[in-house]
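With this grant's support, we have settled on a layout for protein records. One resulting record is reproduced below.
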Amino acid sequence: MNAKLVKLGDAWFDYADVLVDVMIGYACNVQCDYCSITDEMRKENMATAPVMAALTEARRRGAVKVAFGGGEPTIRRSLLPLVRWCRDRGYRSVKIPSNGLMYSSEAFASDACDAGVTEFHISFMAHTDELYARIMGRPDALALVTRGVRNLQALGRTPVGDLIVKHDTWMHLADIVEHWAGLGVDTFNLWLVSLSDRNRDNLASLPTVSEMRGGIVAAFERGARLGVTVRSRHIPRCMLAGYEDHVADLRDDKVLVVTPRATFALWESKISPNTYAAKCHGCRYQHGSCLGLRRDYLERWGDAELRPTYDSPAAAAGALDSSATAGPV
């Protein structure tokens, strides 16, 4: 096998096209109300030496894109030295997902840019002080994140916005998009809240997509009017009929996730859509542009909302006659 290739799921990819996403630790400087990271997980941490060893091997095989996630990666003291180390060894793209609080420091924002961070992703919780504080747990959250975005913009960096779709945000998504677009953000990803680990029993946080569809569609349409990109990352295309162009395929990003516990393709994660329901069998998009449902969503709400596209009556009948739920992709 070519040493420049890496296997993600069932397919092989050129390392140069793959993003190596290293979860350097799950510690965080806040406790958001939907967070799935448990207290025990927050203690997990990847030592710097193994991180460097893994990235040295990936670079040797041709990798040029890296991300450092968590948790909250910006609170780790070794983050920016690691970023510089990657830059100096030929990594051309360095992505950091964050809650944005640390960028409220002009010095830190400047240091992050100087170190070599090329892509800034910020999880925007809301557009008002009240909702932001309720979700993130600190009353100054919106002010700090806003300052951070302005600091990055002043340095010529425009962050990507990650929005969590849940029981108290779906009806505000369009306004959240407009608020942050007003500060120059031009790309937004919608992520469905996950019922896993710490958030597993918080069932009220995840309504049906059918209930939330109006708010999600409003975000798509508001984004189109404003000239910004809004895309969904966790919802099957058949649940968003008419807006399929806004549905992202996680495989397109070619992400190899490296955690303290395991290494896997992004779409193999338990918080990614990777499970087909029985009625998906024979759908035109199965094993193609659709990865199915997230397992936690299927366990919570079943498959009633799915509207598969069948190419023949026989395929539809076969799917309806099937009584078993398919496993992961």
Remarks:
- The chain is about 30% helix and 15% strand.
- The first strand starts at residue 5 and ends at 8.
- The radius of gyration is 20 Å.
- The CA atoms of residues 282 and 312 lie 9 Å apart.
